[in-house]
Amino acid sequence: MLLFPIYMLAKDVPKAYSKGLEKIMTYDELKQALAVFDIQERATLHEITRRHRNLVKLHHPDSGGVNDLEPIRRINEAYALIRSYIEGYTFSFAEEDFYSQNPEELLRRRFMDDPLWGGNARCR
Question: Which domains does the chain have, with CATH numbers?
Answer without folding.
Answer: 26-89 (1.10.287), 92-124 (no CATH)
